[in-house]
Design goal:
By secondary structure, the chain is an alpha+beta fold. Among the domains are: 363 residues, Multidrug efflux transporter AcrB transmembrane domain (Multidrug efflux transporter AcrB transmembrane fold); 88 residues, Alpha-Beta Plaits (2-Layer Sandwich), CATH 3.30.70.1430; 170 residues, Multidrug efflux transporter AcrB TolC docking domain, DN and DC subdomains. It is 53% helix and 19% strand. The strands form eight sheets. Strands 1, 2, 3, 4, 21, 22, 29, 30 and 31 form a nine-stranded antiparallel sheet that branches. A six-stranded antiparallel sheet has the order 14-13-18-19-17-20, covered by helices on one side.
Length: 1047
């Protein structure tokens, strides 16, 4: 028994099954997680090693190169990059896609453990980590108030941080900015020298005299008494009165040589929120956690925290990824609803029957609910990609139901009973509907097997669309026939009510459709009589459209308006934190005048890269995170605002300023710039010269900006070179000299002071006025073990110099990169011009130039997707061959595919959109959609011929009969995708190119298919007849010299 027959005969069973599906669908919907994008697990691991005080070349030879060499022996390693700078080595290992990263990370850790025993003793234990986009914050909170920054940071660390970290799904909380309380012992070097003391002695006394110690226990009158020595400092006064030395003249106390200040650490970072000093609270989630759920619980917890904090403390959510996710998902849902309503409107206009429209209207939500069940069991989350797939699926979702319902409606109109119409109509088109559905699903199978970022993102889209289309097929073959058998009616045009109200308008619309049928029949008859003209005409149009390809650019992924702009500032090397902060405040003043700016969060000091932060202080950098007002409250998009800000900041001297619109589609996926050119070789000086020449050439290409190199000149510094022989003569070692200098200038934490349940560092260093210039450093007194005092310049040479630069390597070869951004042009055209110029630039022997960045990722993605498209076409042919049990008819139908190219090129050229990975997925989707019309038409032609009708008559009959369902499905799909193609709302830009490609390709293929396909059908049929006749003659033993006459 066929599925449709069962549905018609067992309506109660179908209703119960539908109820079960609805119930399970609602449960599945409630359990689906919500996130911005699918869970992306990058095949990247990092090895971070710290070696304090060592230069880049030393670290490169002793740490970086050994790590690179041993990691290179691991299987599936695709690329190894490293960055070596003063004090640290970072090695980034990229594996092939599909690698088990848990096992790969374990292998990296084992290999590093094998080589680390050869590292110098001062090297810290290497840290092996997996690179994960979830390491980026999902929420950034700013906290400010009239209290000092020490107290604010204490509240953030001891109250807020611990409360947030208890929330399920939160991985960690990072606190930035503020000041940390610290007790400073500022030593007067003259007084210390007069008493014959050294900084080391002061530090040692503080460390040894601050203790609590258990001394065992004694038994007294059947009791056990614990004995404890209580020697911890309990007040600042106790510290000041600490005896350091006893002489004949009395006791020397700490207060005699130093000032003890209960203060705070020297700031290494400033953070502000809209110009007010503040604390930054960055929340990171666990990789498998639901972003929206985590943020909702976080907001609830923050309300509890607010209630117990002082009223004058302000807490503001600066960045909230869940807000953008909710807005984006709502936008896609709204777009899908609009598309569904437009599709239903098309059905109503064509069928002009309210009950028929109601049947289709019920089929759409049921198909969606069924999709939720399959999404849940497939582990798919609610995100921009899957919801975009669902929105795309709605356009295709109604096709099967339309074809089935239209055929049932036609039988009913011809006088058949409801039962017979439902059974015969569903049976007539059942095979064609299944074939068209499976061809559409088949095109998505290759995407599942493609590797790389594009596959990682669009695998969920492919599965979601496939689930939606499959669900719609089941609904079309069960619910639609069952409902049609119970409630379908046919309007009588002679009914007086048909001439009143809206029915009159519908009647006129019906007359237009009937007239279109007549026109199409004439066109079809003409086309069959002028087959060569039709084929040549379509070929000419196709070739002409190819001439528009140069007008269509190419990009990796379409940019999205997240309402966020990042401003990175790089001051001259060695700039103080205060100097960097002064310039940053000027930028903040400029930003406050930009009308679209809502909030500005400033970080002066750190790199801001939480995935690669090594803890090294950077006083010459700053990062401004600019949040714009809601999209509905501004006219300009984020790129236009960024351009405006960039223009205003051009006149500010003293720094390199890079302004970029933050794109959530690229966050965490790629750290590459749009332009990235790597120059590889052994000599750093030669690489620097080549990089400068390359950068100069790139800057000449229109559409490039912010072109820079990764060359680092190093920080200005004071270099101390100890003369070991002279130091030894005074009983000093090089390490003792270095330790004394460090304590004098940077200070040394001697002990910890316990106050108000806090452990506070006690730092010993010279007073500020004794460490201001080079002369004071030269006169720093060193005290040997014998008590001898000697100035630093007696045992060391002190001079100005430039610190070591950064050494980058790729695949165990030194590399210098040229990076840049693009504007006003697409990436492909810019890179083509760059490559043309650089191809003429000679390179020395042993040096190579390679292109990377987003351009490389785009090229790799296009190659993979091209393979997927070719495989999809093959799969479509195979599915149709199974359907028709023929090798010829699938070729006939596949002639509709080239016509889609015309529509794709025209749609992209007209809208000004570029070919991207998203658009390419739409092209693959088209390969399955466009053949659906051909399948329905060819299937009916063959049915009529099997019933005894002549070929031409069968074509002239099938064409007008199938015209209405073909137009209905095509127009319904096009209008359903139209809101998505507009790209309105948050995140809408991400799906717009895909919908644009589908609309353009489907529109042109539908128009040309109705004429071209019957012509090609007859051409292949004639060819088949000739081949059969020739084979017949050969089998009958007829010679090739003469042709027998046909009877």
């Amino acid at each position: 028994m066929k599925l449709s027959d069962f549905a018609v005969k067992r309506p109660v069973a179908i209703l119960m099954l539908v109820s079960i599906v609805v119930l399970l669908g609602i449960v599945s919907w409630s359990l689906l997680s919500v996130d911005l994008y699918p869970d992306i697990k990058l095949p990247i691991a990092g090895v971070i090693t710290s070696y304090a005080g060592a230069g880049p070349e030393e670290i490169e030879s002793q740490i970086t190169r050994p790590v690179e060499e041993i990691i290179g022996t691991i299987a599936n390693v695709k690329n190894i990059r490293s960055m070596t700078r003063a004090g640290s080595s970072i090695v980034v290992v990229e594996f092939n896609w599909g690698t088990d990263m848990d096992f790969a990370t374990l292998q990296v850790r084992e290999k590093v453990d094998m080589v680390k025993k050869f590292f110098p003793a001062e090297v810290d234990t290497p840290l092996v980590v997996k690179m994960d986009p979830s390491m980026l914050p999902i929420v950034q909170i700013g906290m400010s108030g009239p209290k000092d920054l020490v107290e604010l940071k204490t509240i953030a660390e001891e109250d807020i941080k611990s409360s947030i970290e208890r929330i399920p799904g939160v991985a960690s909380v990072v606190i930035t900015g503020g000041l940390t309380r610290e007790v400073q012992v500022q030593v007067d070097p003259i007084r210390m020298q007069n008493y014959g003391l050294s900084l080391g002695q002061v530090t040692q006394v503080l460390r040894s005299d601050n203790f609590n110690q258990s001394s065992g226990q004694i038994h007294d009158a059947h009791k056990v008494l614990f004995v404890r020595n209580l020697g911890q400092f309990e007040s600042i006064e106790e510290l000041e009165n600490l005896p350091l030395l006893t002489t004949a003249n009395g006791t020397v106390y700490l207060r005699d040589i130093a000032v003890v200040i209960d203060g705070f650490t020297e700031p290494t970072q400033y953070t502000r929120m809209d110009g007010r000093s503040s604390i930054g609270i960055h929340v990171l989630k666990q990789s498998d956690a639901n972003t929206v759920a985590v943020v909702e619980e976080l907001k609830a917890e923050m309300e509890q925290i607010r209630s117990r904090l002082p009223q004058d403390i302000e807490i503001e959510f600066i960045f909230d990824q869940a807000k953008f996710i909710n807005l984006s998902i709502s936008s896609v849902q709204r777009t899908a609803l609009q598309g569904a309503l437009l599709a239903v409107l098309v059905i109503f206009l064509f069928l002009r029957n309210m009950r028929s429209t109601l049947i289709i209207s019920v089929a759409i939500p049921l198909s969606i609910i069924s999709t939720f069940i399959l999404m849940y069991f497939a582990g798919i989350t609610f995100n921009l990609i899957s919801m975009g797939g669902l929105a795309l699926g709605i356009g295709r979702m109604v096709d099967d139901s339309i074809v089935v319902l239209e055929c049932i409606y036609r039988y009913r109109k011809n006088g058949y009973t409801l039962y017979e119409s439902a059974r015969l109509g569903a049976a007539e088109v059942g095979n064609a509907v299944m074939a068209s559905t499976f061809t559409t699903i088949a095109v998505f199978l290759p995407i599942v097997f493609v590797e790389g970022i594009s596959a990682l993102i669009f695998k969920q889209l492919a599965l979601t669309v496939s689930f939606a289309i499959f669900s719609s097929l089941i609904v079309a073959l069960t619910l639609v026939p069952m409902l049609s058998s119970k409630m379908l009616t046919v309007d009588d045009p002679k009914d007086p009510r048909a001439q009143k109200g809206y029915r009159r308008i519908l009647q006129k619309w019906g007359n237009m459709i009937d007239a279109l049928n007549v026109i199409y029949l004439r066109l079809l008859r003409w086309a069959l009589g002028h087959r060569k003209t039709v084929v040549i005409g379509v070929t000419v149009i196709l070739i002409a459209s190819l001439g528009l390809i140069p007008l269509i650019g190419a990009e990796f992924l379409p940019s999205m308006d997240s309402g966020e702009i990042s401003i990175n500032i790089q001051m001259d090397k060695g700039s103080t934190l205060e100097w960097t902060d002064q310039l940053t405040q000027k930028l903040e003043a400029v930003l406050q005048e930009v009308p679209e700016v809502d909030t500005v969060f400033t970080s002066v000091g750190p790199s801001g890269n939480m995935m690669m932060e090594t803890g090294a202080a950077q006083t010459d950098v700053a990062l401004l995170r600019v949040m714009l007002v809601s999209r509905t409250e501004r006219i300009r998009d984020v790129e236009q605002v960024a351009d405006d800000i960039r223009d205003q900041l051009l006149g500010i001297p003293g720094a390199q300023i890079k302004v970029s619109a933050s794109d959530p589609m690229m966050a965490g996926m790629s750290s590459s710039s749009p332009i990235s050119i790597s120059l590889k070789g052994d000599n750093l000086q030669v690489l620097k010269e080549l990089a400068e020449r390359t950068a100069a050439e790139v800057r000449q290409v229109p559409g490039t900006r912010e072109v820079d190199t990764t060359i680092s000149t190093g920080n200005p510094e004071i270099q101390i070179r100890v003369d070991r022989q002279k130091a030894a003569a005074y009983g000093l070692s090089g390490l003792q000299v270095a330790s004394t200098v460090k304590t004098a200038i940077d200070g040394q934490v001697a002990t910890r002071y316990h106050a108000a349940e806090q452990e506070i560092d006690v730092r010993v260093r010279l007073q500020p006025e004794a460490r201001e210039n080079l002369q004071q450093l030269e006169n720093l007194i060193l005290v040997s073990a014998t008590g001898a005092q000697v100035p630093l310049n007696q045992v060391a040479r002190i001079e100005y110099g430039i610190g070591p630069s950064v050494i980058d390597r790729e695949n165990q070869v030194r590399v210098v990169s040229v990076t840049g951004d693009i504007f006003g042009r697409d990436l492909k055209s810019v890179m083509t011009d760059i490559k043309t110029r650089l191809d003429q630039m000679p390179l020395p022997p042993g040096y190579t130039l390679e292109y990377g960045g987003v351009d490389k990722e785009m090229q790799e993605a296009f190659i993979d997707l091209t393979k997927a498209l070719l495989l999809a076409i093959v799969l479509v042919y195979m599915v149709m061959a199974i359907q028709y049990e023929s090798f010829v008819y699938p070729f006939v139908i596949m002639f509709t595919m080239p016509t889609t190219v015309i529509g794709v090129i025209l749609s992209l050229a007209i809208t000004g959109r570029s070919l991207s990975v998203v658009a390419f997925v739409g092209l693959i989707m088209l390969a399955g959609i466009v053949v659906s019309n051909g399948i329905v038409l060819v299937d009916y032609i063959n049915t009529l011929r099997r019933r005894g009708m002549e070929r031409e008559q069968a074509i002239l009959t099938a064409g007008p009969v199938r015209l209405r369902p073909i137009l209905m499905t095509a127009i319904a799909t096009i209008l359903a995708m139209f809101p998505l193609a507009l790209g309105l709302g948050e995140g809408g830009e991400g799906q717009a190119p895909m919908a644009t490609v589908v609309i353009g390709g489907l529109t042109m293929s539908t128009i040309l298919t109705l004429v071209l396909l019957p012509v090609v059908y007859t051409l292949f049929d004639d060819l088949g007849n000739r081949v059969k006749a020739r084979l017949r003659r050969r089998l009958m033993g007829v010679g090739s010299g003469s042709l027998p006459q046909e009877r």
